Amino acid sequence: MTIELPAPPHPTTPLPPPPHVAIAGGGLAGLAAAAALADRGLRITLLESRPRLGGRASSFVDPATGEKVDNCQHVSMRCCTNLADFCRRVGIDGLFRTEPAVTFLGPAGKVSRLAAGILPAPLHLAGSFLRARYLGPVEKLRVGYGLARLALDRGDEAGRGESFAGWLLRHGQTPRTMDLFWSTVLVSALNERLDRMDVGHARKVFVDGFLATKHGFEMELPLVPLGELYGSRLEDWLSVHGVDVRLTTGVKEVEVDDEGALRGMRLRSGELVAADFVVVAVPFDRVRSLLPESAAERIEGLDRIGQMESSPITGVHLWFDRAVCPFDHVVLPGRLVQWVFNHTAIQGRPAAGPDGGQYLQIVISASYDLLGKGRDEIREAVLADLAEVWPVVKDARLIRSWVVTEHGATFAVRPGVEAIRPPQRTAVDGLFLAGDWTDTGWPATMEGAVRSGYAAAQGILADLQRPERLIRRELEPDRFARWLLGEGPARRSAIPPARVPW
């Protein structure tokens, strides 16, 4: 027997498809945009030309062992509120180790530790700084004066086109204080030399990272390789949350119609990925090649991106047959080797040999002087530098090594760079830019990359009439720091700009 069902009283209207967001670039900026928009009823496609996610924060596979090796050590700081939010959002926040102190090994082999004391910010680091054994009393006075001037000036001189090296010389610093203190902190943080560095970015590092809050300077070290942290784990999370992740998929061009309306992205394969919104989250030197002339000419300031420059960074990976470094991580002021990270201690990754050996990652930021050198020459220079610090290096057997130089590791924080950083929203409806090089208020950092991705996602939600604040506020300055570093000409003039008397 057949039962005939009655027709529904009202014809059903098919629901329109959800808005489609296409993201070009699987670095932290693109990942942050995708993660922020996931689970919101949108269709999201993430396109990455390489076979892995993570962008510059990634790993490669050592063919000799099959293990993942990071391109270069990446660390965060507790002042990086948006990166921390992103890690919580995607469930990887438990894969970091907080370091409450930074160890310095001075030129004479004397150990100093930078750690917060009992005083409130911005004086919390004063005790450990005064105990630093690689600076003399007069040098500490000079540095203290420079820090006070930098903090209380509120970056008023940052827009004058002056390099930070010039600023330091005008404020009583010597080549020795610049080499052992200012360069030690800033070259690693900003991946640029003092003579090519913007004053405002230097101030950002010291005020937000070290002075405004008691724990903002504390490092967060990843406990797993970057390729797992921002690669495989992110790919799994995004897939579970409905994001279509397409690796080894190159984008040829953003496509617009004859009237200039956004259509989507044309792939190198010829396929058109139609989209209502497009986020271009690629390095600054690739953006212009992805935009058709009809779109590029409508984006104000896009031509200025061509004025941006890159800074290199070199990572040297060394596997020894025995332990040579007694620290989990250590800063070496005034040397070729700037940072040493003991991955045997941090990540439990031995090298080889009877006692398991030791695996060290060496970081040399702003490595302009190494660009013309071969890998063997760089490795030997690093080994010689380490042997001066730890003579046991001469007796240890080097099992294997890798030298990785990223020529375009970060955008260069040159004086005046803020004037050429574009916003995330463009004049083309539905088209957004993302990347640490866009206008984020932060230097070339993972925090800046995530902030840019969140800003693009925030703009998309606003266009969909679903406004939501995604960008997390920076750490609130401690009460005393807020009073001492607060705005106002009276506070800014608290220290006169007279010549330093010593």
From TrEMBL:
Segments forming domain Amine oxidase: 28-461
UniProt keywords, alphabetically: Oxidoreductase
UniProt key word rRNA-binding: no
InterPro entries assigned to the protein according to its UniProt record, in alphabetical order: Amino_oxidase, FAD/NAD-bd_sf, Flavin_amine_oxidase, SQase_HpnE, Zeta_carotene_desat/Oxidored
Domain of life: Bacteria
Cofactors: FAD
Gene Ontology molecular function: oxidoreductase activity
Known EC number: 1.3.5.5
Positions with a binding annotation for FAD: V251
Pfam families: Amino_oxidase (PF01593)
PANTHER family associated with the record: BLR3003 PROTEIN, PROTOPORPHYRINOGEN OXIDASE
NCBIfam families noted in UniProt: HpnE
Name of the protein: 15-cis-phytoene desaturase
Chain's gene name: pds
